[in-house]
Amino acid sequence: MTFTPSCLLVTGGAGFIGSNFIRWVLGHEGGVHVINLDALTYAGNLESLQDVDAEHGPSGDARYSFIHGDVRDLDLMERVLRGEAIPKAPAPDCVVHMAAESHVDRSIMGPGVFVDTNIRGTMTLLEAARAMLKTRARPFRFVQISTDEVYGSLAADDPAFTETTPLAPNSPYSASKASADLLVRSYVETFDFPAIITRCSNNYGPYQFPEKLIPLMITRALADQPLPVYGDGRNVRDWLHVEDHASAIWSVVTGGEIGAVYNIGGSAELPNITVVRCVLQCLGKPESLIKYVQDRAGHDRRYAMNTDRICRELGWQPGHRFDVGIAKTVQWYLDHRQWWERVLNEAYRATNALYLKHS
C-alpha cells in the first residue's frame, strides 16, 4: 500500500546526505513539508541548504523549516512529533532518521560519542514517536538510514551483501549503527512500530564534508598536497551518488514494507586507489601526489551490495554512472571553493590524526 507523507522530519538534515535528500524531496514533491532537525556539530552545515531555505523557507513557499536540536533530547523530540515546535507546520507523519556520528576514523579516535548519539539518540527518537502514536494513532513511517558497514567485510570472491546477511560490524561506528538497527527492529517486533531500515553503500556528490575519501582527495589535490591512501589502496567500495540515494529513500518512504530492510547501492564497485586516480585525472594532477600510509585498524576489505530487493519491489534504479558522477562531483568542488574552504581545518583534523600520524 502506498504511503504519502504530508510532513517529513529529517534528523541530521544539515549533513551531506540529509541536505541532498531535503533538496531532492522539495524539488520533486510539491505537497510535502520538510522539518530539518540538526544539532549542527562539525559536519552539519546550514550553508548547504541556503538555496533550499531561500526557495522553501519562511520567505519562500514555507515548505521547509529548521530546528536546532539534538535527537537525544526526549522533550524536544516529543514536541516536534506532536507538531508543537514549528508554528503553522503540520505534525510530522514520517521520520527519516539520518542524525548520526558517521566517520569511521573518528570512531577509532573516540568511540563514546558514537555510542551515545547513534544508539541513545535512535532510542530517544523511537520512544518519542511511540509515545506520540499512542495518543494519536495515524498512518506513520519511521525510516532508519543505515550503512552497508554493519555487514562487515567481504572477500574478493564473496557474493554481495543481501538484506539477510548476518551483521558483523568491525568498527565502533558500524557497531553503533548495527545496534541502532537492532533497536529499530525490536520496536517493530515488540511494539508493532511502523519502521523500515535502509542500508546504503558509500555516498559521493556535492556538499560532502571533506574528511571523507572523495572530497578529501579533491581538496588536497587542488592544494598539491599528498593524497593519503590507506594500505595498498585496494579496499573495495560500492559508490552511490547521493541523488540516487535520495530517490531510493523516497521510494522506501512511499512504498516500502513495514519491518523490511532495503539495501541501496550504486552498482559501482571500485578499489579506493581507482577512485583516487579518477579524481587526479579529472583535475589534471599527477599520480605522484599519492602517498600510501599505514592501514586503518580493522579496515574492511570489500563491501558490495545486492540491490535486487529495492529494484524488484519498488522499481528503483541508480541513475548515475560513476565516471559521469565523479566528474560532476569534482566540478562541484571546483565551483564551490568558498563552501569547503571554510571547514577544511576541522575536516583535516581526523586526517592528520590518523592518515598522517605515521608519516
Helices and strands in order:
Layout: E1 7-11, H1 16-28, E2 33-38, H2 50-56, E3 64-68, H3 74-81, E4 94-97, H4 104-109, H5 112-135, E5 141-147, H6 172-191, E6 195-200, E7 202-204, H7 213-222, E8 227-230, E9 236-241, H8 242-255, E10 261-264, E11 269-271, H9 272-283, E12 290-293, H10 308-314, H11 322-335, H12 337-341, H13 344-355
Parallel strand pairs: 1-2, 1-4, 2-3, 4-5, 5-6, 6-10, 7-9, 8-12
Antiparallel strand pairs: 9-11
Helix pairs in contact: 1-8, 3-5, 5-6, 7-9, 9-11
Compact description:
This protein is an alpha/beta fold and 359 residues long. The protein has 13 helices and 12 strands.
Key terms:
7-stranded parallel sheet; 359 residues; alpha/beta
DSSP strand content: 15-25%
> How many DSSP-defined strands?
12
Q: Low-confidence spans: pLDDT under 50, at least 5 residues?
A: none
**Largest sheet descriptor:** 7 strands, parallel
Number of helices: 13
- Structural class of the helix and strand makeup? alpha/beta
Radius of gyration over all CA atoms, rounded: 20 Å
- Spatial order of the strands forming the largest sheet: 3-2-1-4-5-6-10
Distance between the termini: 56 Å
Please state the overall shape, judged from the principal axes of the Cα atoms.
globular
Strand-and-helix sequence, N→C? Answer: EHEHEHEHHEHEEHEEHEEHEHHHH
Mean pLDDT: 93
Indicate the multimeric state: single chain
Helix share, percent: 40-55%
